[in-house]
Structures are given as structure tokens and as C-alpha cells.
Write a structure and sequence with these properties.
With about 250 residues, the chain is an alpha/beta fold. Helix content is about 35%, strand content about 25%. A six-stranded mixed β-sheet has the order 6-7-8-3-9-10, sandwiched between helices. It has a four-stranded antiparallel β-sheet with strand order 2-1-4-5, with helices on one face. It starts with a strand and ends with a helix.
Amino acid sequence: MKKSIIEIRDMKREFKMGSEVLKVLKGINLSIYEGEFVTIMGPSGSGKSTLLNILGCLDRPSSGDYLLDGISVKNMTKNELANVRNTKIGFIFQAYNLLARTSAIENVELPLMYNSKISAKERRERAIEALKRVGLESRLHHMPSELSGGQQQRVAIARSLVNDPVILLADEATGNLDTRTSYEVMELFQELNDRGSTIGFVTHEDDIAHFSKRTVVLKDGNIINDKPIENRFDAKEELRKINSTVQE
């Protein structure tokens, strides 16, 4: 049986709005196992962003249990949560969140700056290796302004990989990209998944979800669908179709 990376049981998240209580998540149960590629979908207000924030230890549930890599995070201190985020989770954001005046390799090194056990030499070596994994070994010293949107997202993905996390969490990671570039990024995610990376990917785009292996759909704070993807898209094949159409 595969190792459980994420275990959520009867998780609720409520926010007090004056005298009213807004119930955003209403008793979520979810398991994500090692090596899975799961997309989380749902309309605006469904609770997917709140769920992602909790999965990424940026927020806490109001009640229920959350185990990440077998460890309960419910009662952790802020410092403990920060350590979990830095060692077990790789974040990829829609807006890339790169430092504008910092080179690609320096952006990728950033998560390792908080780990005093890693020397500057090892930090640089791991950053180079991460950039190689996303195909940017020739862009190590380029600034974000010198990179295309797809290349900037690849730098962000490399940064998420540098700490060897147990799960990658992507929030609308193709939202700012055109179709071809989006599919190139999904090709990279499929390659990473094939090599063993566990991925949780929030998107509102049906075609992007079809590159994953499983889709979880939220509505009004509840999971209304959780099933494997049928007729999964192969990113290499979809890119080939786009290229052949352009050539014609």
C-alpha cells in the first residue's frame, strides 16, 4: 500500500464575520498518496483556496484532523509550521513570486537560506540541479525580466523542488500563461510526477485538470466528486498537435 502524504478527516474551516459565522469548509475528508497527481477544482467560493492554504500550512482548520507525511499539524506552533512549510512542501504560485532583482539560481536558492545545516556550496549545487530538472541550466544567471512567462514559472517550480519536499502544491500555476506555454508547464509536471513527485494542483481549467490523474471537485465547502481522470491528456502529444496545426 502506498504511503499517505495527506490525510484530512472531518476538517472544517469557519470565519467569524461580525456576529455571523461563515462556514467555508464543512467537513472535508481527503487522502492523497505518494506519487499521485491530484487536481482540486471548484467555482469561486467553493473553498478550494481555503483548502489549499490549510494543506500548505498557511492556515489552520477550525476543527478536524490534518496529517502531513504522517505528522499531525493541528497543534503546531507558528515556528513549527514554518519549518514544515520549508522542508515538506513546495509551493508554485500563479504569479511566480520571484524576486525581480535576483537571478534564477539565487531565486531557487532562497528556501535553503533558512537551513543553517546546508553550506553555501551545497545550496548552489542543489539549486543548479533543480534548474537542470526543469530544463533551465542555460539560464542560471538570467534575471526574471530576461525570461519568458513559461521560463519564470519553471524557475518557480525549480525553487519548489530544491528542498526535496514530500508534496508540490500549485495554485493556478498556468493561470497567467497561453495555451502552448501552459501545456509545456504541464508536460514538466507530468515528467516530475513520473519521477515520483506527489502533486496537488488547484485549477479552474478543465483541460489543465485532464493532465492529472485524479480530480477532486468542491462546491459550497463540500467535496462533491473525487474520481480518477478518464482519457488523461498526454502533454507531449497535445503539444505535438498544437505544433502541427501551426505548421499547417
